[in-house]
Amino acid sequence: MKLSHHTARKTRKIFFFIHLWTGVILGLWFVMIGLTGSSLAWPELIGAEMKAMFPYERTSVNQPQIPLSQAIAAIKKNQPDITPQELSLVIVPNYRFPYYIFTRNNKVFHFTLFLVDPYSGKVNPPRQVIDFTTGKLEQMHMNLVLQAKGLIANGIFSVFILFLLLTGLWLWWPSTLRQLKLRLSVKRKAPLRRVLMDLHNIMGIYLYLILFVTTATAILMAYNDATNDSLEGAEPKALTVNPNGNRLPDDAMMERARADLPHSNFLYIVRPVKPNDPYKINFERQGFGFLRSGTLWLDPYSGNTLQLDRTANAPTAKRNMAMVESLHDGLYGGIFIKVLYTIAGFMPLGLFISGLWMWWKRKRTKIKAATEIQNAVG
Q: Which of 37, 190, 191, 299 has a 20 to 30 A CA-CA distance from 127?
């Protein structure tokens, strides 16, 4: 149903007001989120930064990586007071993190990382995530370096940005094919104000879908994390095993896991602490696409597979949340999608600058017109 001219004009005024002031008030926050998000589209960056800070120590390019058992022995020697609980979670070398990484939680460091060279076994000096530039950017993007409060704030701000995008789409929407052509290009030899308006339209519409999807998924992710994974449903009952003899060595467990998952990247493992704990390996299937992650559960005494959980076969709630995270991160379609997400991350900066300039020019024009009228009356 087509709106009357009066109703359409009034609606446009309301939407313009919402769009303008949401952009003015939250523009800088949106710019920060976009720029930090662009860097996070490339998770390899933190690995590159780690290698620049702590170069590999190896004798040749073809030198094989040390096994997990050697990395554990190295961290035990370097940190003799480390507890079995702190040795439980181990990040194994992968395309994101090229080191064996162990974590410690204490009052002095609070979540400290120990990077073990995967070739020499050297334990590098302790670092925190925020010591890395990419770590700072990640914390800024996720929670404004304010933990839970920042996470909630990001979720609330994202709701307003969603209104900003929706009102922007409504204001841009053409009623004729001629208008569509004009709003998808920059008019040549036009006044500055018209050029800025065309640029604002182009930057906002060409990658609109990515901006909309990342904003909508950010709201869902913030709500999910702030409410203890309520959108993923109840956690499954923890697996347990019957202790039977001695546990198999870590290297033997890794070999069993690689046999079960020949075309997968291992991200991290959870070594058993209690006698009835299973051996847990989090993995990601190689290649592109959605829902590539999963978890393999092994019996640490026999090495037999207890359970293989693939995200693609998970319950609907968990599968949908994994899809939301994939859509937000842009890690599902290879380098082409990552480049698009990176460019989209710079769009809020361009939109903010062009929008602010247009607002200021409009305001100056009104002030100038009011001054001229006042002078004429006076």
A: 37
Question: Tens digits of per-residue pLDDT, 182-214?
Answer: 889 988 888 888 888 899 999 999 999 999 999
Spell out the domain ranges in the chain.
5-42+139-231+334-377, 55-124, 234-314
> How far does Cα 316 stand from its chain's mean position?
22
* Structure-model confidence comparison of residues 111 and 327, the more confident one: 327
Backbone angles phi, psi at 84, to 5 degrees: -55, -35
86: helix, strand or coil: coil
Q: Considering only CA atoms, which of 219, 213, 231, 214 is closest in space to residue 152? A: 219
Give mean pLDDT, residues 260-269: 95
Q: Whole-number mean pLDDT of the chain?
A: 91
Question: Which pTM was predicted?
Answer: 0.89
Residue that is written with structure tokens 């198999």 in the block: 248
Residue pair 293/285 in contact (Cβ under 8 Å)? The answer is yes
The string of pLDDT tens digits covering residues 339-361 is 999 999 999 999 999 999 988 88
The CATH class for the domain spanning 234-314 reads alpha beta
What is the per-residue pLDDT for 2?
Answer: 60
Residue (of 94, 118, 116, 101) closest to 284 by Cα position: 94
Please enumerate in sequence order all residues whose Cβ is within 8 A of that of 48, keeping only pairs 6 or more positions apart, or say none: none
CB atoms within 10 A of CB 166: 15
* Angle at CA of residue 300, ends 297 and 303, nearest 5°: 75
Residues constituting the chain: 378
Position 190 scores a pLDDT of 84
